[in-house]
Specification:
About 5% of the residues lie in helices and about 55% in strands. By secondary structure, the protein is mostly beta strands.
C-alpha cells in the first residue's frame, strides 16, 4: 500500500513539473514533436489537416514511456482511410494508472483542396477517472487544423487544440484540458532532407518552441535530430525504418530534470503510399 501511495505521489509531482508541455496530448511522429506543418506523417491528436494527405488506408499504434515510469506511460491507437469526398480518421489514447487515468477518443475529417491547402477538423471526447470518488467524468472538445502549401518545398501549418478552453468540471474539482495554439513550417532542402519548426502556446501554461531535421537514407531509413524549449532546452533524437507495408519509429528526449522520455510507434499501410 505504501509503495502504491509513493508511486501516486511521485507521478503527481512529475505531472506538476511537466505541466508546461501539455502532458496528456500524445507525442507525434515528427522530430521534436514539430508536427503542425508535417504533411507527410499522420499522428493522432496532432494537426488533423495532415489526415488530408493520407493516400492509403493505415493503422497505427504508439507507446510513450514518460521518464521510465510505467504509471505515466501513454498508449495511442488510430486508423485513417481516404475517400473521394474527405479522409476519415478514428483515434484513441489512454494515459494514467489505477488511481487516476485519462482516456481520449476522437473522429477526424480532413480534405486536400486541389493541392493548395488541407483543412482538418477533429472532435474528441475526454474522460477522467478519479479513484477518490470512484467516478468517471467526461466532456467534448474540438481540434482544428490547416496546412497551406506555398510551394513543393515550403509548407506552413496552424492548428488549435481545445480552442474554446473547455475544462472538465466536477462538484469539487476542475480539470484543465490543454488549450494549445500551434504555428509552424516545413522546408524541404532536398527530397530526402527537411527542416521542421513549430511554436506552441498553451493558454493555461507556457510556450514551447521546437525544431529539427529529418534525413531519409535510401527511402527506408530515417534519422531525426532536434530540440524543443519550454522552461528547459530538451534535445531529441529519432530513427525510423520502412519495411514493405510497415513503418517503425523510435524517439528519445532527454529532459535535464525529469530524465529520459522514450517513444515508439508502428504503422501498417494497407495500401502503400510511399
Amino acid at each position: 500500500m505504501k509503495k502504491r501511495l509513493l508511486v501516486v505521489w511521485f507521478a503527481n509531482f512529475i505531472l506538476l513539473l511537466q505541466a508546461q508541455t501539455s502532458a496528456n496530448i500524445p507525442s507525434s511522429l515528427s522530430v521534436a514533436n514539430a508536427s503542425v506543418a508535417d504533411n507527410q506523417q499522420f499522428s493522432p491528436f496532432a494537426n488533423p489537416a495532415t489526415l488530408g494527405e493520407v493516400s492509403g488506408m493505415l493503422f497505427g499504434f504508439q507507446y510513450e514511456n514518460k521518464f521510465l515510469i510505467k504509471e505515466l506511460s501513454q498508449k495511442s491507437i488510430y486508423v485513417a482511410a481516404p475517400n473521394s469526398l474527405m479522409n476519415v480518421g478514428v483515434v484513441g489514447s489512454y494515459f494514467g494508472y489505477a488511481q487516476y487515468n485519462e482516456t481520449v477518443a476522437g473522429i477526424a475529417l480532413s480534405r486536400n483542396f486541389g493541392g493548395v491547402f488541407s483543412l482538418g477538423f477533429q472532435y474528441n471526447y475526454y474522460r477522467v477517472y478519479f479513484a477518490g470518488s470512484n467516478s468517471y467524468y467526461g466532456t467534448f472538445f474540438p481540434q482544428i487544423g490547416l496546412q497551406y502549401f506555398l510551394s513543393k518545398r515550403f509548407t506552413i501549418g496552424f492548428s488549435t487544440h481545445n480552442p474554446a478552453q473547455q475544462n472538465l468540471k466536477t462538484a469539487s474539482y476542475e480539470k484543465i484540458i490543454p488549450s494549445v495554439f500551434s504555428l509552424g513550417g516545413k522546408w524541404m532542402f532536398e527530397n530526402n532532407v527537411r527542416f521542421l519548426c513549430q511554436f506552441d502556446k498553451d493558454m493555461h501554461g507556457n510556450y514551447r518552441l521546437a525544431g529539427g531535421f529529418d534525413y531519409c537514407m535510401k527511402d527506408f531509413l530515417l534519422f531525426q535530430m532536434g530540440a524543443y524549449q519550454t522552461e528547459y532546452l530538451v534535445p531529441t533524437l529519432g530513427v525510423g525504418i520502412k519495411s514493405g507495408s510497415f513503418d517503425v519509429n523510435l524517439h528519445a528526449d532527454l529532459h535535464p530534470v525529469l530524465g529520459l522520455n522514450s517513444f515508439a510507434s508502428v504503422q501498417f499501410h494497407f495500401q502503400s503510399n510511399h
